[in-house]
Structure formats: structure tokens, C-alpha cells
Amino acid sequence: MTDKNLDFISEIVNRNEGNLFHPSKHVPGKYYLDQIREIPDDILIYFKTFNIGQLKDLHYHDHFELTYLESGRCSQTINGKTIPMKPGDICLLGPSDSHSFAVEEDNTLMFVVIIKKSLFEGSFMYLMEDTLLRNYFYNSLFQSETSQTFLSFPHSDSSNVDLLIHFLIFEYFEKGLYYSTTVECYLSLLFVELARYHQKMLEQSVVGDSQLVEILVYIHKNKSDITLNSVAEKFDYNPNYLSSIIKQNTGKTFSEILLTSRMDEAAYLLKNTDMSVDKISQRVGFYDKSHMHRAFRKKFEMTPTAYRQTHSHSPESGTKPENEPEN
């Protein structure tokens, strides 16, 4: 982006910048969007230049936020995890993510793309195929209001991300004919490029066989009380990224691997111990017994009690049949 273009954008942004956000009167640290004239309904873009030592207090928003570092150095702390940023780096935050940032170099220039949740209520979501990004937006919108999962994309000279970001920014501020539709198209193209970049990162992943084995062993040993988020935190990965790595290397999802591990241990305990089905269910991580019965019947095509009676290695087991749900 040329200095002339930046000057053009700066003139517009300086006029509106102070009006973009207002602190919520009811929720400390929360910001909400103010309706401003001359902007699209669902997408807002602004930028600001910071000097070394400037801080942005911890806060969260009610929208998606894409931050792009044009120049300088800074670090963002997102949900307690600090992400150093260099020029060309991108972070994508959801409505429940909290973040702050610290500036480490004078004249640090950051662009911020605000994406309102209402954008995904229409057809925009379906422009994206079943990729990391579509899953990310879907989970952020519909799975849990407290889900805290962000994505980060280091700069790459081999991708078209920089070019698309600059087209998006210039189109937004120039406001030519049909600019609102064009901005949405550029944003969609940007997400496609980020998804491609993410796939390439997976294919070139530095996760070696030894660490993957360590992760799988950890899942097996802690099957009773783990989640994808807890495993990701243990191994210092973004949950979405870890999920993709597991799928890429094993052909199975995290949930499938966890369920298989639980079912295999349940089968072992049924064959080799007199432990009740209720206790086995709790031991392997099913605190709803009916859920365990459904999963077991789906995998082994029989109830846990029938499996024990057929496969038991314990002379005493199977003598006291247990009442089991039909489904």
C-alpha cells in the first residue's frame, strides 16, 4: 500500500476514529459498536499508529475482530496467551475472546477489521467450504457463548494475504460504487486465502512423530476427564490447530480418538474385572450411563452386560446380570 493511499485512509479514519467504540456502562472491560454513517452494516475497518510503551487494557467485544500489523512491533495477550506480532501477522478473535496489547516499537501501525455477527446470519457463512475458518465461525457463533478460541497466522511471503488485506482496506475507505458488496467479496477471498495458508502450515507442520505419540498417549491416559481445550493447553497449541493436526496425521478427529480409547478400556474392564457397569462408565469418563450404553452398543453391537457374559475372563463376573437401558 502506497504512502498516498495511507494518507487518504488516514484523513478519513482520523475523522471517525474516536467514535468507533464506547465503553459499556454495564460491563467493565466490554466495548460495543456505535453506529457510524458512511460504513457498511456488517464490516468496519480502522487503523491507528502507536508508539513504544503504549498499552491497550484487557477488554473484549461483541463481534469478531481481525487485527493486521502493517508495520512496527507489538504483542497481543489473548485469553492469557501472549502472541508476539511482526509486520504481516494476523490474529482473529471471536466474541468471547479477551485481549490486550503492548506496543514495542514507535510508529507501529495496526489495521483492525471489525466483523459483526450479523454478517453470518445471511449467506456469507456458506461462501466458505468446510474449513478451519468456517468451523471457527460456526463454533464461535453457535456452540458456546463462553467459548474462547482465537486464530493466529504468521506472515508468509508466499501467500496473497497482504495483497488481499490492502485491497480490502483501500476499497473500504475509497467507497466507490458497490463498495459494500466488494468489501464482503474481498473479505471472503481473504478467508479463503487464510484457509489455504493454514492447510499449507499443516502439511509443513513441525509436529514430529514423537510429539504426536506423546499427545495420543496423554489422551489415552487421561481419557476420563479431558477435553480438546485442556489437551491443547497442556501442549501449548491453539485448540483448532491441534484438532487439525490430529485429523491430518491420524485420519480421526479428537472426539473419535477419545471415544475409541474409552470404549477399548470399558471392554477391557468388562472382560477382566468384576467392576460394575456403572463404575466402569464413570471410570472411563461417561458420567451419563445411558451415553456409555449407546456408544458401546454402536461399537460392539451388544450391551456391556452381554459383552461381559460373552468375553469375560473372570470366573465370578457375569453371575449377577445388571439392568441396562434398551438404547
Question: What is the topological layout?
Answer:
Blueprint: H1 3-16, E1 21-23, E2 30-33, E3 43-50, E4 55-61, E5 64-71, E6 74-78, E7 81-85, E8 90-93, E9 98-103, E10 108-115, H2 132-143, E11 151-153, H3 161-174, H4 179-203, H5 209-221, H6 228-234, H7 239-250, H8 254-272, H9 277-283, H10 289-300, H11 304-311
Parallel strand pairs: 2-4
Antiparallel strand pairs: 1-2, 3-10, 4-9, 5-8, 5-10, 6-7, 6-9, 8-11
Helix pairs in contact: 1-3, 3-4, 8-11
Any descriptors?
alpha+beta, AraC-bd, five-stranded antiparallel sheet, 11 helices, sequence-specific DNA binding, elongated, Arc Repressor Mutant, subunit A, Jelly Rolls
Q: Can you describe this structure?
A:
A hairpin with a 2-residue loop joins strand 6 (74-78) and strand 7. The protein has helices at 3-16, 132-143, 161-174, 179-203, 209-221, 228-234, 239-250, 254-272, 277-283, 289-300, 304-311; strands at 21-23, 30-33, 43-50, 55-61, 64-71, 74-78, 81-85, 90-93, 98-103, 108-115, 151-153. It is elongated. Helix 1 (3-16) crosses helix 3 (161-174), helix 3 (161-174) runs antiparallel to helix 4 (179-203) and helix 8 (254-272) crosses helix 11 (304-311). The protein folds into 3 domains: 3-203, Jelly Rolls, CATH 2.60.120.10; 209-251; 259-311, Arc Repressor Mutant, subunit A (Orthogonal Bundle), CATH 1.10.10.60. The strands form 2 sheets. Strands 1-2-4-9-6-7 form a 6-stranded mixed β-sheet, with no helix packed on it. Strands 3-10-5-8-11 form a 5-stranded antiparallel β-sheet, with helices on one face. The termini are far apart. It has 11 helices and 11 strands. The chain is 44% helix and 19% strand. It is α+β, with helices and mostly antiparallel strands and 327 residues long. It comes from Methanimicrococcus blatticola. Residues 213-310 form the HTH araC/xylS-type domain. InterPro entries: AraC-bd, Homeodomain-like_sf, HTH-like, HTH_AraC, RmlC-like_jellyroll. One of its GO terms (molecular function) is sequence-specific DNA binding. Residues 303-327 are annotated as: Disordered.
